[in-house]
């Protein structure tokens, strides 16, 4: 675009057939301002080879742009998938940490309850022995008290044998048949050392997915 009175640059030999349409300086000065054209039109005939080259360049550029857009979309999808996997892993790690805290709290509560039960049992036994001794001294029946004590010992021995047999049968059932019913029942009743021994004995049958996160 050129103003009135300005000249075009010289053309190359290949486009020497191009012609320009413009107002001459004399006619531009004599015409009123509203009719003066601020631009000049250049009309030229392009070579066929140059037109084909331009068209081919535009096609290649369009293909490059389409390929870039496809690759950009693929990379975006990959990054979205990576972000989703990362978020899922973070959620899983948080869930495992919360599960570990919950299990540790439950184990601490079980240990406190077990200590309370053992203390109450010891207190009841000591109180029962004191009452028995006081009853024997007050009544003056030493022989009868001794015979009762012997019978009590026999009864206690029989009870221990029965309890041992029951525990042996239970262990055999857990070890041979199915350990699932006793997985949640045994830990609250036994100490940690006993639980460790049972875990070492019944390890192949009591494997859980959260065993690696247990604090004991």
TrEMBL record:
Name one matching Pfam family. TMCO5
Q: Which GO terms describe its cellular component?
A: membrane
Q: Which domain of life is it from?
A: Eukaryota
Q: How does it sit in the membrane?
A: Single-pass membrane protein
Per UniProt, subcellular location reads as: Membrane
Query: Where does the chain cross the membrane?
Result: none
Asked if the Swiss-Prot or TrEMBL record annotates the protein with the keyword Membrane, the reply is yes
- Keyword annotations of the record: Coiled coil, Membrane, Transmembrane, Transmembrane helix
Q: Does the keyword Protein transport apply?
A: no
Q: Which InterPro entries match?
A: SMCO2/5
Name of the protein in its database record: Coiled-coil domain-containing protein 188 isoform X4
């Amino acid at each position: 675009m050129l103003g009135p009175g300005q000249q075009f640059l010289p053309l190359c030999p290949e486009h020497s057939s191009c012609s320009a349409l413009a107002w001459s300086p004399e006619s531009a000065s004599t015409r009123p301002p509203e009719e003066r054209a601020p631009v000049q039109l250049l009309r030229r005939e392009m070579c066929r080879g140059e037109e084909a080259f331009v068209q081919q360049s535009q096609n290649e550029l369009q293909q490059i742009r389409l390929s870039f857009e496809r690759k950009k979309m693929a990379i975006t999808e990959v990054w979205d998938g990576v972000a989703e996997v990362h978020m899922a892993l973070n959620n899983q790690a948080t869930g495992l940490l919360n599960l570990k805290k919950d299990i540790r709290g439950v184990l601490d509560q079980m240990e406190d309850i077990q200590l309370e039960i053992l203390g109450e049992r010891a207190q009841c036994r000591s109180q029962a022995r004191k009452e028995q001794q006081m009853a024997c001294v007050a009544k003056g029946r030493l022989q009868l008290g001794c015979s009762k004590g012997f019978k009590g010992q026999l009864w206690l021995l029989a009870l221990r044998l029965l309890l041992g047999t029951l525990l042996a049968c239970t262990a055999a059932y857990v070890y041979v048949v199915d350990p699932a019913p006793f997985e949640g029942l045994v830990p609250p009743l036994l100490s940690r050392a006993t639980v460790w021994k049972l875990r070492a004995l019944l390890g192949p049958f009591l494997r859980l997915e959260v065993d690696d996160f247990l604090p004991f």
